[in-house]
């Protein structure tokens, strides 16, 4: 009896290990959407992520800091409108890492050229650390979705 029970438990274990348990049965797969967002077979794609860090030049007057931040945000909007920047945002707090960008570009060099257009980088207020990142191609849906959620643009902020 013990051997039969052990055999039953082991066979159940092995059957469970060989049975597909993926929560996605692929019935929701949308080939046209995968193509639109550049997804591979796993629904993923390569991006370049930028970590925006505090730069050496942070001693600006309140007015200079405001103008630089406004120009920085306008540049973010420009890169997003061009389809090169799919996600951007600051981190809370006052740590050394200030925010991130996720670029939809082919190479770190292309992302580096884009970061050089940022007035905060040009002024030395920020520096960037660029890394290739493999993430969900669904990130590409964020810009269009964000437009539907945005009541006012970040460049319309107050002093």
Outline of the structure:
By secondary structure, the protein is of the alpha+beta class. It is built from six helices and four strands; from the N terminus they run ααβαββααβα.
Overview of the molecule:
The radius of gyration is 23 Å and the shape is elongated. The chain is built from 6 helices and 4 strands. It has a 4-stranded antiparallel beta sheet with strand order 2-3-1-4. It is α+β, with helices and mostly antiparallel strands and about 160 residues long. The chain has helices at about 1-20, 30-35, 60-80, 110-115, 120, 140-150, and strands at about 45-55, 85-90, 95-105, 125-135. Residues about 5-20 have low confidence and may be disordered.
Widest beta sheet: strand line-up: 2-3-1-4
Q: How many individual helices?
A: 6
Order of helices and strands: HHEHEEHHEH
Spans with pLDDT under 50 lasting ≥5 residues?
4-21
Main beta sheet, described?
4 strands, antiparallel
The secondary-structure class comes to alpha+beta
What would you call the shape? Answer: elongated
Average pLDDT: 86
* Helicity, as a percent range: 40-55%
The proportion of residues in beta strands is 15-25%
Distance between the termini: 79 Å
Rg of Cα set:
23 Å
Number of strands: 4
């Amino acid at each position: 009896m013990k051997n039969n029970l052990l055999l039953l438990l082991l066979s159940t274990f092995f059957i469970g290990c060989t049975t597909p348990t993926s929560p996605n049965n692929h019935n929701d797969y949308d080939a046209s959407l995968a193509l639109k967002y550049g997804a591979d077979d796993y629904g993923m794609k390569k991006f370049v992520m930028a970590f925006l860090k505090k730069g050496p030049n942070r001693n600006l007057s309140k007015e200079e800091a405001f103008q630089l931040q406004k120009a920085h945000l306008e540049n973010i909007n420009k890169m997003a409108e061009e389809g090169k920047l799919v996600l951007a945002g600051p981190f809370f707090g006052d740590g050394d890492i200030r925010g991130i960008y996720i670029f939809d570009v082919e190479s770190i060099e292309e992302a580096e050229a884009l970061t050089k257009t940022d007035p905060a980088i040009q002024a030395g207020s920020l520096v960037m650390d660029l890394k290739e990142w493999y993430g969900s191609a669904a990130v590409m849906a964020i810009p269009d979705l964000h437009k539907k959620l945005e009541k006012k643009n970040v460049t319309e902020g107050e002093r």
